[in-house]
Design goal:
5 strands, alpha+beta, 28% strand, two-stranded antiparallel ribbon, 3-stranded antiparallel beta sheet, Ribosomal Protein L22, Chain A, 144 residues, globular
Length: 144
């Protein structure tokens, strides 16, 4: 059962300007520990890809806050939701603190996708109730 959906569209330049204005502190404020490590790695390899990563994670947090219907209010906080990637590249959500307890108590699960194209990023989140949908796809099981 779908509880809520949320989407966010963001111009990367706006977030990059805020990042530069805060001398990088913005990333520490909004990214969880695991996200921050990935951000640092991507930023070190390619500044633009690092900014795209930061922007997609910001957008995912905004979209998630809309999907659960709380906005950016407790138990939702910037760092309590992380959007990480499986080895295949598929994004998934990881919760901590009060948000983890909130999601477990309600038996809610989030499904997230993010994308970036040139100067824009977009995130889309569906929050559902009940048993989580199996998200692991093994193409070997479907080859004839």
């Amino acid at each position: 059962m779908i509880i809520g959906i949320g989407t966010d569209l963001l111009q990367m330049g706006r977030l990059q300007a805020a990042y530069e204005r805060t001398q990088g502190r913005l990333a520490k404020r909004i990214l969880g520990d695991d996200e921050y490590l990935v951000f640092q790695q991507r930023l070190g390899r390619n500044y633009k890809r690092g900014m795209a990563y930061l922007a997609t994670r910001f957008a995912a947090k905004e979209a998630f806050s809309k999907a659960i219907g709380l906005g950016m209010h407790m138990p939702m906080s910037w760092r309590s939701l992380q959007t990480l990637n499986e080895p295949s590249g598929k994004p998934y959500t990881k919760y901590s603190g009060a948000l983890l307890q909130f999601m477990e108590d309600k038996q809610w699960h989030a499904h997230v996708t993010v994308t970036d194209e040139q100067e824009m990023v977009m995130a889309f989140v569906v929050v559902s109730y009940g048993t989580p949908i199996v998200t692991t796809f093994d193409p070997q099981n479907y080859l004839g």
